[in-house]
C-alpha cells in the first residue's frame, strides 16, 4: 500500500525560498561593496601579506696594512628577522625555532616583541648554516637576509689597535670607532614580494639605496705588528705584569709601523671580548708618568752619542722609596 506523499506547506516553502534569496542578495551586495567601494582596504591587506619592506645590505669598509694585506674584512653572514603579526599565528613552531637559534623560548619571545609592528630582529651576523636551517623549517613569518660581519685575519694581534664592531656594524672601539664615519655602510631598504615561506621572489621597489663603506689603509707593517705582540705577551708573562703596550715608529716619517697592547682577545670568537681591558689600546688610552715618558728620549740620546752600548747593564743599589714603593 502506497503511503500518501507529504508536501511542505506553501507558506513555509515561500519562507525558505525568501531566506535563501535574501542571503544570496546580501552576499551579492557585500561582494559588490568589496569589489567597488572598499578596494583600497583589500589591496592594503593583500600587500601586508605579500609585500615586505626588507633591508638592503651594504658592506662596511675594509682595513688594510701598508702592503695591502687585509686587517679587517667582511665575510658572509645572515641576519634573521621576523614579521611578528605573521609569526604570531604559528606559535606552535616557536619551540623548534628557539632550539635552532640556541635561544630559550622566553628569549625568543622577547626578541619577537622587541621590534615594530611588522619587523623585529632575532639574530644578526650569524653563520649562513644557521640561516639554511631556519629556511628548511619553512615557518611563515621568519626571514633570512644575507649580510656580512667583520673578520680580523690577525685576531688578537690587532684587537687593541683596530678595536671592535658591534652588531649594528658600527665601530665601538679603536680605529673602528675613530674612523666609523668613513668605514660605516648605510643599508638601504627595498619593497619585496615574498612567498608563503617568506622568501623573496620579486623586488617591487627600492625604497632607499645602500651606500658601501670606504676602505682605510694604515701604515702598519703586519710582520712587525705580529712580532711586537708576541714579544709583549711573553714579557707580560715573564714579569707577571698586569698589562702593557709597545709602539714601533719610523722616526724619519712619524709613521706607526706597529702598535700593540696586551692582554688582548680574539674578536672573531663569539663572546671573547667582554672585558674592556682586553680590547683597550693601552698605548694611547693610558696616562703615563712624565718621567717614564722622558726615559726613551734619554736612552736614545745616550745611544746616539755612544755614551753607552745597547748591551750595557746598570746596577742600582739605592732605590728611592716613595709612598712605600721603590723607584
Automatic annotation (TrEMBL):
<dbReference type="GO" id="GO:0008658">
    <property type="term" value="F:penicillin binding"/>
</dbReference>
<feature type="domain" description="Penicillin-binding protein transpeptidase">
    <location>
        <begin position="244"/>
        <end position="315"/>
    </location>
</feature>
<dbReference type="GO" id="GO:0071555">
    <property type="term" value="P:cell wall organization"/>
</dbReference>
<dbReference type="Pfam" id="PF00905">
    <property type="entry name" value="Transpeptidase"/>
</dbReference>
<protein>
    <submittedName>
        <fullName>Cell division protein FtsI</fullName>
    </submittedName>
</protein>
<keyword id="KW-0131">Cell cycle</keyword>
<feature type="domain" description="Penicillin-binding protein dimerisation">
    <location>
        <begin position="56"/>
        <end position="202"/>
    </location>
</feature>
<dbReference type="InterPro" id="IPR001460">
    <property type="entry name" value="PCN-bd_Tpept"/>
</dbReference>
<dbReference type="InterPro" id="IPR050515">
    <property type="entry name" value="Beta-lactam/transpept"/>
</dbReference>
<dbReference type="GO" id="GO:0004180">
    <property type="term" value="F:carboxypeptidase activity"/>
</dbReference>
<feature type="transmembrane region" description="Helical">
    <location>
        <begin position="12"/>
        <end position="29"/>
    </location>
</feature>
<dbReference type="GO" id="GO:0005886">
    <property type="term" value="C:plasma membrane"/>
</dbReference>
<keyword id="KW-0812">Transmembrane</keyword>
<keyword id="KW-0645">Protease</keyword>
<keyword id="KW-1133">Transmembrane helix</keyword>
<dbReference type="InterPro" id="IPR036138">
    <property type="entry name" value="PBP_dimer_sf"/>
</dbReference>
<keyword id="KW-0121">Carboxypeptidase</keyword>
<dbReference type="Pfam" id="PF03717">
    <property type="entry name" value="PBP_dimer"/>
</dbReference>
<dbReference type="InterPro" id="IPR012338">
    <property type="entry name" value="Beta-lactam/transpept-like"/>
</dbReference>
<dbReference type="GO" id="GO:0051301">
    <property type="term" value="P:cell division"/>
</dbReference>
<dbReference type="InterPro" id="IPR005311">
    <property type="entry name" value="PBP_dimer"/>
</dbReference>
<keyword id="KW-0472">Membrane</keyword>
<keyword id="KW-0378">Hydrolase</keyword>
<keyword id="KW-0132">Cell division</keyword>
